[in-house]
Amino acid sequence: MKYVYASRTGNVQSIVSDLGLDALCIQSGDEVMEEPFILFTYTDGYGDIPMEVESFLMANGQNLKGVIVSGDTSYGEAYCQAGDKIADEYGVECLYKVENAGEAADIEAIQAILSNV
Length: 117
Hints:
Layout (H helix, E strand, L loop, with lengths): L1 E4 L5 H9 L3 E3 L11 E6 L8 H10 L3 E8 L9 H10 L2 E7 L4 H12 L2
């Protein structure tokens, strides 16, 4: 399985790094992934999908197999909504929701999920 991520503040990049994953970083949205992948993303604004992630998925979404999303619980119901929206739009599972960069327990939980995907 391949991994792709978008990180604006460094939280998602930290998660990917803590997991030791070799992952493609989405910067412009023009990147290409021709193999099945898991997406790691952040939630923008008040529950929005980041623009570069939307662009990337428009061209590569057919290969999306699941999403792991970072958010901030201080946004209430908008917490990690980008993951829910992506999962609904592309018919995949939102595999995990993590607060900001997560903690050791989150990294362990994500590792367990990825080993079963």
